[in-house]
Amino acid sequence: TIPDSTTATTNAIGQYTLSGVTAQTFIVSVSKSGFVTAYETASAVAGRTFTLDFELISSSSLGNLEGTITDGDIPLERVSVSTTPPTESIITIGDGRYDFDTVAPGIYRVDASRVGFYPGRVYVEAKAGETTVGDMALGRRHDGVIDGEIRDISGTPIGSGFAQRTGY
């Protein structure tokens, strides 16, 4: 269970009330089968009512963006893949695949980058209820490359770390 959680079901016209909410900042999520769950941050103040309206997007009105990143032949893992708009990013695993599901219809720029390779970019159009494929081949750089990962002792990746090459 979620500590200090409160739930409510909407009435016939979509209204809800979350009562007895502790005065603090928290996240409100709303969901219904067939729609994409929405989240908003809210702050409760003792003795006051905070109005928070939501507009849910039908799952059937969304599409998927997916593809495979290769070096021309072999799928590439550890490739950072991002979309614009909105900015979302994932890292490919061993099969070189990426998948952004539940994206709104529209034109997306998909960027891919990995140390030791020239970055790649494709533009794809997501359509409601369809899967759009945006495969890319990244060219290998032929200059010297030092590649690695920064993790803590438990193996968790450390983002925004800093690596530097220095000469002797």
Order of helices and strands: EEEEEEEEEE
- Measure the end-to-end span: 56 Å
User: Can you give the mean pLDDT?
Assistant: 87
Oligomer: single chain
Q: In percent terms, what proportion of residues is strand?
A: 25-35%
| Rounded Rg | 22 Å
The structure class reads: mainly beta
Helix content: under 10%
Shape: flat
Written description of the protein model:
- With 168 residues, the chain is mainly beta.
- 0% of the residues lie in helices and 33% in strands.
- It contains no helices and 10 strands.
- Strands 3, 6, 9 and 10 form a 4-stranded mixed β-sheet that branches. A 4-stranded antiparallel β-sheet has the order 5-4-7-8, with no helix packed on it. The protein has a two-stranded antiparallel ribbon with strand order 1-2.
- Strand 4 and strand 5 (88-91) form a beta hairpin.
- The mean pLDDT is 87.
Question: Topology, please?
Answer:
Layout: E1 25-30, E2 38-43, E3 63-70, E4 80-84, E5 88-91, E6 97-103, E7 106-113, E8 120-126, E9 131-133, E10 136-137
Parallel strand pairs: 3-9, 3-10
Antiparallel strand pairs: 1-2, 3-6, 4-5, 4-7, 7-8
Features:
168 residues; four-stranded mixed β-sheet; four-stranded antiparallel β-sheet; single chain
Structure summarized in a few sentences:
It contains no helices and ten strands.
